[in-house]
Write a structure and sequence with these properties.
Blueprint (H helix, E strand, L loop, with lengths): L4 E2 L11 E2 L1 H17 L4 H21 L6 H5 L3 H13 L4 H20 L6 H5 L15 H6 L12 H17 L3 H5 L3 H5 L4 E5 L5 E5 L2 H13 L21 H15 L7 H14 L4 H8 L4 H4 L1 H17 L4
Antiparallel strand pairs: 1-2, 3-4
Helix pairs in contact: 1-2, 2-5, 8-11, 8-13, 13-16
C-alpha cells in the first residue's frame, strides 16, 4: 500500500481508509460536483463521502490492497454483495444500506462520465428489501398542546421554555423539518406575515403558512430572549446565544411527550407527519400538501393517504359493535 494515499478527512468512528491517489482525486471531484453543481446539502455530501470511504476500506481488505480505478471497474457483483453483507453484519439496517448503495452507484456513474471505467457490478446488485412503514402522526389535540410553554422543562428559564414551544409549534403549524425551522433568520421573522419562505432539501425554497398563534409565540420568545438577534443571524438561539442545535429540540420534545404520555415515536419530525395527515383528514388537496411539504415527487406525499386510510379503519374496528 505504499502507493496509496491516506484520506485524512475521516471521522473517529471510521477505520483509517487507504485509497489510490487517482481514486482519491475522483472522489473529491465527485463530492465537489454534488455540492457545487447539484446543490446537495453538506450533510448529504458528507454521508455519501462516508459511504464511499467505507466501501473502499472494505475493498482494501477484501482485495488485499488499495483499489485502483481499474480494480473498481473489474469488480464482480459478488464483491458488492460481500460488502453489503458485512455492513448488515455490523448492524446497518436496510434503509441505510439502500442509501449506501445509491451513493456508490452515483460515484460509479460519475466515474463512467469522466471516462474512468464502468463499474457494472454496482448496478447488477439488487438493493435490500425495505419493510413498508407508515409515518406515525400525533393526535391533533396532543400536537396543539406542544405549543404550551408550561410543558417545557420546569427548571429552564422562561425564554427557553417559550423558545422550545415556539419551535415545536412552528414544526407542526407549518410542516417544517427541524433544519428548515432552525435555518430561519431574524429578518425572516421580521418579514413574516401569514407566510414565510424556507430553504429545504436541495436548497429548494418554498413558501409555507405561519399561523397567528405561532407568530405570537415566536414574538414572545424574541422579546424574552436575552441575546441580540441580528437580522442575518439565526432566529432561534441556544442557551449561550449560538445557533440552536437540533438535538436540543429533540430533547425538548422528549420532555414534552413524557408530560403528555405520548409514545417514543412522537419526535419533532412526527409533527411534520402530523401536519400533513391532519390537513389531508380535513380535506386538504394532495398537490397542495406536496407543495407545502416541499416534496419533489407526489409519490412521497401519497404515503399520507395510506396513513389516513389506516386511521379510518382503526377507528371503525374500535367503534363498530360487529367489528
Amino acid at each position: 500500500m505504499c502507493a496509496a494515499k491516506y484520506m485524512s478527512r475521516h471521522s473517529p468512528q471510521e477505520p483509517p481508509v487507504f485509497i489510490a491517489p487517482a481514486v482519491a482525486a475522483e472522489l473529491k471531484g465527485w463530492l465537489d460536483h454534488l455540492g457545487d453543481e447539484r446543490n446537495y446539502s453538506a450533510k448529504t455530501v458528507e454521508a455519501y463521502r462516508r459511504d464511499v470511504l467505507q466501501f473502499l476500506a472494505f475493498l482494501a481488505e477484501h482485495l488485499g490492497g488499495a483499489p485502483s480505478l481499474k480494480a473498481l471497474a473489474a469488480l464482480k457483483p459478488a464483491d458488492v454483495r460481500a460488502f453489503l453483507a458485512a455492513r448488515r453484519g455490523a448492524g446497518v439496517g436496510s434503509r441505510s444500506l439502500m442509501r449506501t448503495l445509491a451513493g456508490l452507484r452515483g460515484f460509479a456513474r460519475y466515474l463512467e462520465r469522466e471516462g474512468k471505467g464502468k463499474t457494472g457490478a454496482l448496478t447488477a446488485v439488487r438493493g435490500p428489501k425495505i419493510g413498508k412503514t407508515l409515518p406515525r402522526p400525533l393526535p391533533a389535540a396532543s400536537a396543539k398542546r406542544l405549543a404550551d410553554p408550561g410543558l417545557a422543562d420546569a427548571d429552564a428559564e422562561p425564554w427557553i421554555q417559550t423558545r422550545d414551544a415556539a419551535v415545536l409549534a412552528l414544526l407542526y403549524g407549518s410542516g417544517l423539518r427541524i433544519s428548515e425551522a432552525l435555518g430561519l433568520t431574524r429578518a425572516d421573522f421580521t418579514a413574516m406575515t401569514d407566510a414565510v419562505t424556507v430553504t429545504g432539501k436541495g436548497r429548494r425554497q418554498r413558501m409555507v403558512p405561519v399561523l397567528p398563534q405561532v407568530r405570537e409565540l415566536i414574538s414572545d420568545y424574541a422579546d424574552l430572549c436575552p441575546y441580540d438577534l441580528p437580522a442575518k443571524g439565526p432566529l432561534f438561539v441556544g442557551a449561550k446565544g449560538g445557533p440552536l442545535s437540533p438535538r436540543v429540540v429533540q430533547l425538548a420534545m422528549a420532555r414534552m411527550r413524557g408530560a403528555l404520555g405520548l409514545p417514543e415515536t412522537a419526535t419533532p419530525h412526527a409533527l411534520r407527519h402530523s401536519f400533513a395527515t391532519h390537513l389531508l383528514a380535513r380535506g386538504g388537496d394532495l398537490r397542495a400538501i406536496q407543495e407545502l411539504l416541499g416534496h419533489a415527487s407526489l409519490a412521497t406525499t401519497q404515503i399520507y393517504t395510506e396513513v389516513d386510510a389506516e386511521r379510518l379503519i382503526e377507528a371503525y374496528r374500535n367503534a363498530h359493535p360487529r367489528a
